[in-house]
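Checked the freezer inventory, then went back to the computational side. Two predictions to log before the end of the day. The first one is the construct we discussed on Monday; recording sequence and tokens without edits.
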Amino acid sequence: MNIALIAHDKKKEDMIRFCIAYETFLKPHRLYATGTTGTKIMEATELKVHRFLSGPLGGDQQIGALVAQNEMDFIVFFRDPLTAQPHEPDILALLRLADVHDIPVATNLATAEIMIRAIEQGELNWRNYVRKNQS
């Protein structure tokens, strides 16, 4: 499974704690992240993360390209709703692509944990639906 991990600056510590807590779950999957988030995850865990550019420099768009090519299965994007983001159009474009391609996006810890538990139980029907309808 391909999983993207993205976190705004004020949410990076939450992402690190999430990755530490779910390291065993995340380890067998292909992980992708925007630049700084990926670096911090790798420093705090033994996870291997393919890093793209930082979000403001195009990392969100690089992950969006994988979504558009049906190469992303799940996105964990811990957003900071209280701080304006200079690259908000890129963020909205990524979320739009995820909606278009039926890719689940967890924007907070509670939703991310629910998705992890569903994936652990083999609840991957959304991917079968997406793959079937894109052929």
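The second is the one RB wanted added to the comparison set:
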Amino acid sequence: MKVIQLDYSHSYSNSDFPPLVMALGFFDGVHLGHQKVINQAKEIASHNNQKSAVMTFDPHPSVVLGKAQQEVQYITPLQDKIQLMENLNVDYLFIVHFTKEFSQLLPEEFVENYLVHLNVKHAVAGFDFTYGKFGKGNMDTLPIHSEGYFDVTVVPKLENDQEKISSTSIRQFIKDGDIENANQLLGRCFITKGTVIHGKKRGRELGFPTANISTDLTYLLPHTGIYIVKVLVNGKWNQGVCSVGYNPTFHDPEEKQLSIEVYLLNFNQDIYGEFVTVEWHKKIRDEKKFDGIDQLISEIKKDTEEAKEYFSSME
């Protein structure tokens, strides 16, 4: 897959690319609905002996257009999105740098500069895709603005239990800790990535040594609680239990930053400094404050047993 960064004043012309079938969208999560759009583009490309392409945007428009400067947490930060597109066997990925200048393009200017000039012969997008200044361009106007240069396919909404599969609903499920429903709409397990760092080593003192994972702030993180997870370390998946929270049992007034700690089952390697992937499967319970260490240890044992039973049932 060829990855091409596009700035507002890009100088590409249609002679720089083969005929393309382009899937359009922001695609945060690359969920089942997004996959439907991308696979539709791939099928058309294959049928017409053309190349498949995806156009996405970075950062999220709200970062640029929001009234206040804000950070956005993503289901799939850009690097993860690129990897997922690679997994879908897309030929070209165009990443448009979303800026104030770009947001001011008229709908017809967007079509001319970002579709016609890239040799797009067929554009595919979901029914709710918009483009151009104030989002005035939509899937009704796209055939008009194409002026016959390319064809247009509108992909209807994909539903699960009569509810539209959307990044918004997946994001809410993750925020609520409802990982199972989020995974169902994603069509795979939700993942986050990070580096194993030194923590306060409380888990080791309790008999459950944990890996503290420092995660990029651009990741959307699940609600505080205890989760069943898998962790990819040095190319191998390991089963585990993950705590997302503030360690309320220890009454530490400095514990203001959310921590992600994973206890890996049947694992005793030193992995400080390793870059790992956490695959989220299921929430066990909410984070809670215990009256003492013994009660906490007893609860951790229950959590690990539940995780073992979960993975046994998956075999």
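For RB: The chain has two domains: 2-163, 189-314. The chain has ten helices and 14 strands. Let me know if you want it refolded.
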